[in-house]
Specification:
alpha/beta; Rossmann fold; 2 domains; five-stranded parallel sheet
């Protein structure tokens, strides 16, 4: 049985989310402050974390940083802000998804289930992906560029693997979103995919402003280019 970790201070939201995920067959542990979260996290093992951003004694962003020091489990943020700076912050520190409050419960469950499925699917029998001076060690979850270890968020890592598993194939935005989130792309906030790709390019491209690895195919989508 999957075990979920919820860090949220709104009691009505806690009750609603807890009821919904238990109906899905999941276990859930709830913390209402970062202090409570520290204790629960230290004493438990979880498959996914849902983190509120604004908390009475801290930030979900800060707690995500703690999670990423020891775990690669999927992390979903709950936030009242949908500015690009907030999206970038969440991606940079290791978040896999975020939802803007208020949100529909059915959408939340769809995206939560998608994250869990994607997490399982990335336990692949392949051990390595390599092209264009980029090497992905799948068993270790590590990415190297010309022999240098890169620091990627979980979402950037999954996006890179998706491109490298489909070399020289144009992937539409809809295909990318459905592969990464496995849910209706209309559920994803505007510009989020653009932000993901731009942030990934800053880490893997020699000149991010003139990308040679992940290229844009106008009117069609993106592709991992191996023809250089």
């Amino acid at each position: 049985m999957k075990r979920l970790f919820l860090l949220e201070d709104d009691l009505s939201l806690i009750n609603g989310l807890s009821f919904a995920v238990k109906k899905q067959g999941y276990e859930i542990e709830v913390a209402r402050t970062t202090l409570e979260a520290d204790t629960l996290w230290a004493n438990g093992k979880y498959d996914l974390a849902v983190l509120d951003v604004s908390l009475p004694d801290g930030s979900g962003f800060d707690f995500c940083r703690k999670i990423r020091q020891a775990s690669k489990i999927p992390v979903m943020f709950l936030t009242a802000a949908d500015e690009e700076t907030d999206i970038i912050m969440g991606l940079d520190i290791g978040g896999d998804d975020y939802m803007t409050k208020p949100f529909k419960l059915a959408v939340f469950l769809s995206r939560l289930n998608a994250l869990l499925r994607r997490s399982e699917n990335f336990n692949t029998t392949l051990t390595e992906l390599s092209s264009n001076d980029i090497n992905v060690q799948l068993l270790k979850g590590e990415v190297y560029k010309k022999g240098q270890l890169l620091s990627l968020t979980a979402s950037e890592y999954k996006l890179l693997c998706l491109f490298m598993e489909n070399p020289d194939i144009v992937l539409s935005s809809e295909q990318i979103l459905s592969q990464l989130w496995d849910c209706n792309e209309s559920y994803i906030e505007n510009n989020s995919l653009t932000v993901y790709i731009r942030r990934l390019r800053t880490k893997i491209e020699d000149k991010p402003g003139e990308p040679q690895r992940i290229i844009t195919v106008r009117g069609m989508g993106y592709k991992w280019n191996t023809t250089n």
